[in-house]
Design goal:
magnesium, Nucleoside Triphosphate Pyrophosphohydrolase, 3-stranded antiparallel sheet, alpha+beta, 13 strands, 246 residues, Nudix hydrolase domain-containing protein
Length: 246
Amino acid sequence: MDTKAEAVRDIVTPIDAATIVLLRDGADGVEVYMTVRAATMDFQPNALVFPGGKVSTGDIALLPNDPLGRFKTAAIRETFEEVGVLLAKRDGQQLTAQDVAALYVWRKHLVEHSANIDEFGIETGLTFDFDALHLISRWVTPRVMPKRFDTYFFLARMPEYQVPAPDNYEAVAARWLTPKQALLMSERSECLLLPPTYWTLKDLAEYGSVDEAIRGLVRETVEPVEPVITKKDGKTTIEVPGRSAD
């Protein structure tokens, strides 16, 4: 059999996914909300990541005419499910921590797939704040991996009146970090950062405030970035096209 043809055949098709990079202004500059994935997860166990997850069929209904509609919807839904932060308004007003806590029954419904996000909005009178999302990048899992994702990354300012609450299932720990703190933890082998997370933090480290980060990193369109994994002499190397480690 042609080995090249076999290799192409065995490449796993990426699953659509989305991530929100939650930001706030801190005493030492911009801070990022990051979670530690549970050791039991079948993808990225123990990694330090941003909230996010795969697109579901229920994410398609809200923005049917937007090519990125399902990704934006998934980003908002997954962030609510994982860390209890909800980018939404009611009657044009920002939600408070008390408002969001009262909606936790819907958080449970979404996690259990017993309701879709459009039903959530209709039943609660919420308008999801898609304008709060700022597209910055698109990353595709290397093709040699057994499970792959095609993930759009969005920046979003942490809602002023809300408090994150990790689900303790996918996100077993969480904290606010400056990008430089997270990168230093990685250098000390205190955490696992995968390439999309690492390079997003590297980009964010160049900015002193949320406004600066959004102005500097937002993109109208993005091209997919797919790291390449190579093995030579028993050593594994991950290369990112267009990027070079310091």
